[in-house]
TrEMBL record:
SUPFAM superfamilies found in the cross-reference section: alpha/beta-Hydrolases
Signal peptide (UniProt feature, chain positions): none
Origin species: sediment metagenome
Gene3D superfamilies the UniProt entry points to: alpha/beta hydrolase (3.40.50.1820)
Biological classification of the source: unclassified sequences, metagenomes, ecological metagenomes
Gene Ontology MF terms in the entry: hydrolase activity
Protein name: Uncharacterized protein
Pfam families attached to this UniProt entry: Ser_hydrolase
Length: 332
């Protein structure tokens, strides 16, 4: 659909996504259709049935437009966006223009819907509307997610201080953020203070600027995992998912700063407050990385995913910034 065309026509306005409004609209569409389906269709009720089911179909279009950041100004654009859905009986979406014309004749020319027309729109709802409804519910659920990605801790302070040369917040993170945003998911990738000399309290102060709730997905890389696990154990927060990518928990000998960051008891009750825990590792991860994974999973009891040739999940190891397996675990 040509969004710009409909904006120029005055049929669309830019609006910030309002999930509560969206949820209310889709609930209204579903309830209205259910109630209408219970009405016995005859010559006296056919027009009512047609109008009410048409309204539910239109609301599905409204929901889709609000999800992508637009407020519809008429029913035509709401019906038009429905043609974009990839459903099993996609050809049947072509009948939307016919339903639109019938609705126009009823509203503006005083026509009465026939029993056949009422049955046609009921069939459309059952075959197409219900499938679109399920797709939209999934999209709404995804939009409810807020994802926060915590980067790792570089060893080269001079390189890390330079925004042009630093890599600790790069690797797969920008690509992942872009992919999630394109799916309507809110994503934050905060820069932790002086990560080359990680300090838990400083990390905590920065991290708690963000909204963490029951729908949150927390993703950590390397030492970012150590921070997240400690923070969840300390705060007893309930979240949706915890995803640890190449988790690390073993400081180098003599490194007191990192020892204070990494060495702490893992709270075994975290798994009771997190709906899903996933740990990514690789067949060619360093030995201390593999040991770290075992330490974490002993208490977290999560799902382990081992990918081949990903090393410590840096760009140099992976040879790509794409990380589709992570996208899958965040969304599904």
């Amino acid at each position: 659909m040509n969004i710009q065309y409909w904006i120029m026509k005055g049929a669309l306005r830019n609006r910030q996504q309002d999930l509560e409004k969206i949820k209310s609209m889709i609930n209204s569409a579903e309830v209205n259709a259910k109630v209408t389906q219970d009405i016995e269709t005859d010559d006296n009720t056919a027009t009512l049935v047609f109008r009410e089911i048409y309204e539910s179909i239109r609301q599905l279009g409204d929901v889709k437009l609000w999800l992508i950041g637009y407020e519809p100004q008429n029913h035509e654009v709401s019906m038009e966006i429905l043609k974009e859905f990839d459903i099993k009986d996609k050809v049947k979406l072509n009948s939307l223009d016919r339903l639109k014309k019938i609705r126009h004749d009823i509203n503006y020319r005083g026509f009465r819907a026939s029993i056949g027309q009422a049955e046609e729109i009921l069939e459309f709802w059952n075959k197409c509307g219900m499938e679109i409804l399920r797709i939209l519910k999934k999209e709404i659920k995804i939009s409810d997610i807020n994802c926060i990605i915590i980067h790792g801790c570089p060893s080269d302070a001079e390189k890390a201080m330079n925004s042009q040369t630093r890599t600790y917040d790069k690797h797969w993170m920008p690509w992942t953020k872009q992919q999630l945003i394109s799916k309507g998911i809110k994503v934050e990738t905060p820069l932790m203070p002086e990560p080359w000399q990680p300090d838990y309290e400083k990390f905590k102060k920065e991290f708690e600027k963000y909204n963490i709730n029951k729908n949150s997905v927390l993703v950590g890389h390397s030492c970012g995992c150590a921070f997240l696990v400690r923070w969840l154990g300390e705060t007893k927060k309930n979240i949706s998912k915890l995803i640890l990518v190449a988790p690390w928990k073993i400081p180098d000998k003599g490194d007191e700063l990192r020892k204070n960051f990494y060495i702490y008891p893992i709270d075994k009750t975290i798994k009771n407050r997190v709906k899903k825990i996933v740990l990514f590792t690789s067949d060619d991860e360093e030995e201390n990385g593999k040991k770290s994974l075992r330490i974490y999973n002993k208490d977290l009891d999560g799902k382990i995913i081992e990918l081949k040739g990903h090393g410590h999940y840096t760009l140099g190891n992976m040879k790509t910034e794409k990380f589709p397996e992570l996208i899958y675990e965040i969304i599904n």
